[in-house]
Write a structure and sequence with these properties.
Number of helices: 4
Largest sheet: none
Helix content: 55-70%
Shape: rod-shaped
């Protein structure tokens, strides 16, 4: 249960870290990162990769600046 809280607090935690944390707390039980992945997937928590977006070009920055100047609060 605590591992689910860990994932909710920090969603960027990887499966290996979660398994390592669990294994250090409970010496009598050992779980693998694949077990963590399966359990979290059953609970509806799946991994994803962030979408890679290109950086703003100089012309995009200029256009954005002009757009902002035209629309003051």
């Amino acid at each position: 249960m605590a591992n689910f809280r860990l994932v909710r607090k920090n969603p960027t935690t990887d499966y290996r870290q979660i398994a390592s944390d669990f294994n250090s707390k409970f010496k009598e039980h050992k779980i693998s990162k694949e077990t963590v992945r399966r359990v979290l997937a059953k609970k509806g928590i799946e991994s994803y990769s962030a979408v890679k977006k290109p950086l703003l070009t100089a012309s995009d920055r200029t256009k954005r600046y002009k757009w902002c100047k035209e629309r003051p609060n």
